[in-house]
Amino acid sequence: MKHTAIITGCLLLLSALLVSCNDKALSEREAPHHHSEWKAITQVMDHQPEKAMRMLDSVESREDAAQWSAFDRNEYLLLTVVAQYKNGILSPQSQDLKPVVAFYDSLAMLYPRDKELQLLLAESYYYSATEGAMSKKDGTVFNSYLQSLKIVETYFPDDDSYHVMRFKALIHTRLGEILYGFNLMNQAMMSFQNAADYFNKVHDTIGEAAMIRNQGSIYQVNKEYEKALAQFNEAARLAPMDEDLFLHSKGGLFLAQKEYDSAIWYLERSFRLTDVHATNNAAADLAELYRQRGDREKENYYTNYYVSSTFSEANKVPTKMEIDYLYGHFLTERAASGVKHPERKLELFFIIAFAVLALGIFAYVIVRNRRRIQHIEKQITVIEAKHQQETEGKDAQLKNISQQLSDTQQELQRRSNPSHFSSCWNQYINSDIYQKINALVAGKDIMTKSVTMYPRLKLRDTDLIELVQTMNDCFPEFSTRLLKTYPRLSSSDLRHCCLAVSGWNDAEIAVLEGISYSGANRKTNRILNAMQADSSLGQTLKMFMENNW
Are 271 and 252 in contact (CB under 8 A)? Predict the structure, then answer.
């Protein structure tokens, strides 16, 4: 033990002397010089991608390609994927960039001050994620984009060059697209705004317009149609837009204003678009539109389409949670630490590394293997418990979604059964309270002027309460649905409605409620006015019940 401590101390002292005396310490070196032709290719990549591809083909076909260094080979592979992407020919069969990412990641630790190398690492993360997007590995793809953003924010916080600023715009665009696809609308709005700002700084009006359009799409999903139209109009001002982008927004506005013919014209065309989100949103609005118009067949068609599409999205829940966590953790980490200058970060890195090295060596000598094993076992137990908890939470969420979908389908089947209303109605008219009240007025010629002749027929409060309860039993949630549909109605109006839908006229209702005929008639007219109905109260209520049960 004593000898080990002496040797360790000597090694630490030697390391300190080497670091302090070497003016060209490893952290201050630059990476090996890049192949001279790579820079020339990079300079034409953004504006002349076809020329960049021809230059890469020419360099690769030369005889000296076999003698390239590892640095040159990896940069060539990265540039090839970039060129394929910018020329629109990137495919699942393109070069896998995972080894390139690993190469630059290890090299960046050796040369932390080489900004050009850090930019290559950021680009390798970005284009590796772009490749991964083709295989729908959303969590891995999203994390790679975040890694790319972390690097450019750390090493290029104030860089206003065209290449760097446009690269930042592209990263925020991809992040926003993934967040939007998983319905994380607030986060997506933030990413699209960042992208729009960077596109604006490089005078890319097409890119800026696309981001403003994407923000409009978020407002559209949130049914903020006026804000959506404002964003679409601004995008159209900056750059010409496809008219299809406005279909759902305009249809939604007409639906909100109950201009059904115009709404149908726009929404049905939006429903036929190839964009999945546009189709699903249009289906939901069309289902609501035809429900309001009383077209049960079309309501069921669009509802079933939306429900089936929503069910197919249920499997996205675990990935959505992962992406939400990754982005939230990224924002929290950035807010807590801020973007630090790489040189100051480098100094802090060596201080911490030296301290950790010293403590680690002494800890290795002092700490017993048994304690280390116990510590590791404890960590494994915690990780397993956390994983089990997360798995159970995800399973519970999926089970809840499946149950909701099942309940919705059962409700649709119930509503689509034409005999359901008749069954509910027969149950109601055969109830004890209905038979009791009907027996009271049956056979009596209760006229307008003879209302005061039947004081003994007034129902007790308990009878009226039982009547409303029986209606709710036979027609589930009758009271709740009626008051929600017509919020101007009171609980007293609810009792009056139950008597009216049962088929008794105002004179009979006046006797049963113990009020004058004029009072009953005024209450009926007031309820019809609140419901904005032209038919009799009994017919209006019966139509409401037929459409809902």
Answer: no
Query: Binning pLDDT at 50, 70 and 90, where does residue 351 land?
Result: low
Q: For residue 180, what are the CA distances in angstroms to 126, 185, 214, 259? A: 18, 6, 9, 30
Q: Quote the percentage of the chain above a pLDDT of 90.
A: 24
Q: How far is CA 297 from the centre of its chain?
A: 30
pLDDT of residue 419: 64
Which helix or strand (DSSP H or E) is residue 469 part of? helix 461-474
Q: Model-level pTM greater than 0.90?
A: no
Q: How far is CA 127 from CA 79, 332, 513, in A?
A: 10, 25, 76
Residue 225: Cβ-neighbour burial (10 angstroms; 0-12, 13-18, 19+): buried
Cβ-proximal residues to 146 (8 Å cutoff; 6+ apart), any chain: 175, 326, 327, 330
Q: How far apart are CA 97 and CA 122, in angstroms?
A: 12
**Placement of tokens 């994390």 in the chain:** 143
33 in Cβ contact with 48 (< 8 Å): no
Average pLDDT, the chain: 79
CA dist 116 and 34 (Å) reads 10
CB within 8 A of 10, min separation 6: which ones? none
Report the alpha-carbon distance of residue 410 to residue 418 in Å, rounded.
Answer: 14
Q: What tokens appear for 79 in the block? A: 């540039």
**Residue 154 token pair:** 């750390």
**Structure tokens, 265:** 């014209």
Tell which residue, 368, 248, 469, has the closest CA to residue 376: 368
